[in-house]
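Incident log, structure service

09:12 report received: a user says their structure output differs between two submissions of the same chain.
09:20 pulled the input from the user's history:
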Amino acid sequence: MPLEHTPQDHAATSDLYPTRRPDRESWQERRDPVLWQDWTEKAPITRDQAEAFERDGFLVLKDMFSDAEIRALIDTAAALRRDLAGSASDEVVTEPGSDAVRTVFNLETHHDLMERLSRDARLAGIARFLLGDEVYIHQSRLNYKPGFTGKEFYWHSDFETWHAEDGMPRMRAVSASLLLTDNRAHNGALMLMPGSHKSFISCQGETPEANHESSLQKQEIGTPSQDALRKLAERHGITDAEGPAGTLVLFDCNTIHGSNGNITPDPRSNAFFVYNAVSNALTEPFAAKAPRPDHLGHRAAPEPIVMRDGALV
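09:34 re-ran on a clean worker, output below:
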């Protein structure tokens, strides 16, 4: 039977990572493991890959999916963008002044192939190993950064937002981004600061009401200061998570990352799943008056994903 985890209040859950203070920014060392269990030969990744994830806070894995699988996923993503154009659903974000789809949340609920992908052992199985627990989907989305007009995403730690606005207690979540186009530095590939996941930047500035309505297009609250980012870059450097379509990028919830705008003709797209440990179920937000909508952070009692093996198609 699935473990039952329901949102808790703060009387039962201490705040290990206070943030969004009105008067100051601060740093603290991470208080959670990065790898939540020891590597064994049964692990879905190699020992070297596990050590690289612990050290850097991310992995870039190639050649895990067949050409047929990637082609089917690309075609499905294109069909979703076409069919959902102009949708009034909160789960669909369009480009400003256009019906063109920019983001589709709750991706696994919109197509059977994406649902199978969300449970695929090549994604969810690696997440389960890294987190040392059964996992569920905290958030999922289809991301599309169009050619010429794709906007940048400013530097941030996902955990800072998920902790402050969703009530995620601990750093026990991992993101899996499967590239559905070639991602290069010139068309806005994900940039990460290797090793930045081991420090938590407590950001300055209180959370505005309904902050998600603007932060999804341009995040301002919950981002480190330029001074902090400069120090992080000097300490850790910046890596571009480049690769052809079919590349899988996995990164820890606290890894500082962002992406440049895309002024090339080449669009950038990916299928994105956030896996959270079932033991890390959401509480009430730690630095917001109300939680974000469910399509941004699933608040129901989490049920472990039933893994699937074998080809998607």
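09:41 both user submissions now match this output. Likely a transient worker issue. Closing.
09:42 reviewer note: The first strand starts at residue 26 and ends at 29. The chain has one domain: 26-280.
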